[in-house]
Amino acid sequence: MRDSAALKQADVDAKSSAEDVIRTFTESVANGDHGDAPYPHWVLKKCFPGDTITDILGLPFPAPSLDGVSGKRELHNATRRYFDVDNRKEFASVRAVAEAFQDKRITGMIEETFGTDLSGTYLRIEFAQDTDGFWLEPHTDLGVKSFTMLLYLSDEDGHDNLGTDVYGADKSHVTRSPFAPNLAFVFVPGDNTYHGFERRPIKGVRKSLIINYVTDEWRAREQLAFPEAPIA
Length: 232
Prior knowledge:
The chain is of the alpha+beta class. It has helices spanning 4-13, 18-30, 50-57, 85-90, 92-102, 104-114; strands at residues 33-35, 41-44, 81-82, 122-130, 136-139, 145-152, 165-167, 173-176, 184-187, 195-197, 206-214. Strand 7 and strand 8 form a beta hairpin. Residues 1-12 have low confidence and may be disordered.
């Protein structure tokens, strides 16, 4: 844990509250772009207040080493970072985002807009930091995930080509989502929602938030923002 001075500074540095995140995300969803091919998906812009993005980018989490291994995120479970209970308590920006996505105004809007049922699910937010050599095989997220939102954060040279790769039902490459700070690619997992990341050069660190709502079958409870509070 960080010392009391660091905790105090984390609170000072966070300029936007959960209410600000709720307001901004609500506006983003209302103005989002929807597509149906190769499966229903949405692209949202200006998802969070700018201050919140800045604060998240400043979180003192080191980018993990791939050690020459990639293809699945679970290969590096020991070094992955989450907006979990401890980080929610320690960092005000983490707390603001977690509280916003736990709020019934956001969960209700997600259910209505994206056509999913979040009842009894749990909020899981991963702070992903991908470095050169990273890639992901096509996968669907189907199973214990009821919602997937990939919120891009970084703005380094060449990162505009680091969007999520989207595949057809036969896993053939179809398109690539745009990548820009505070832009998100959203979908409800189904048996055809194949997505991944084709290996290509990454300068610096590709940063994003992976926001999911997962069912009670999710075993890694320590990853959850509110492990004792399912969505009502």
